[in-house]
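Re: the 308-residue chain
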Amino acid sequence: MLSPVADRLERHGVKRWIGALLCTLLVVVVGIGLILLIVVQVVNQASEIGDQLAKAAGDVADWLDEQGWGGDLVSSLETSVRDNWQMLVRGVAPRVTAGLSSMATLVLVVVLAVNILFFLIKDSRQLSRWMSGHLGASQEIGARTLAYSAKSIRGYFVGTTIVGVVNALVVSIGALTMGTPLAFVLGVVMLFTNYVPFIGAFIGGAFAVLIAFAGGGPADALIMLVLVLAANGPGQWVVQPLALGASLNLHPIVVLFVTMAGTILAGPVGGVVSAPLAAVAVEAVRQIRTAGLFEEDDATVATSAGGP
């Protein structure tokens, strides 16, 4: 993702190792900024989020009671939502904090990650040349395949991020307009759940609708539902396949089915990486076919079978 930035700096007279160092520092600064901007904000508002969810569950239960659909099931669901969120805030956060309290381990992991990132950017050309010569094909084919693979992966995550930012803006602006609490948190949730194909859209959308219900009642919840469907519907089923299809050079329907298959076979991680991996495989086959290697294999099979 950052090698093109280092390449551009190098073309402008910046030494490669300095460009790699600047890119690495950029990642560190952005990472710290995200932690301060997002994680701290969410943790600080965790109790408020829990209160809003509990209020939403209670309002839903009251509304269902008014419609004659209440009962023990609704009450148990309300209690479950309230208690589980409180357990999450009180029980998981201390464990996470305790796990991160081992500063030696944390520092070691960060130092290793930063060093690996630095050398991957600094020596990307050498690594590419070595890998292109160990792919089982000619070095020229390997180099073209690796270059296309890097381009596909960059395009995939750029497209996904664009769709996530659009979804987050739609929901956050709608929440601010309606006076829904936690508008910033809703945008953050929508952005990051977008990276989990299909499933993430439902999780983020349900969270936004619940908070809107708690803050303004059924009318606000209905408006938020419309906003979520408008953002996630075209985004997940139209904009995202088109954007990713263009970056991966795959037909949108192929992106859709490959993502679904990857999610079914390997969960969210499979859904995230399946489309770029499919593009890499298609490009590798195309490069091999262009080089005529398939014709050589066909000729060998025909000769062994007694053909001309």
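The mean pLDDT is 74.
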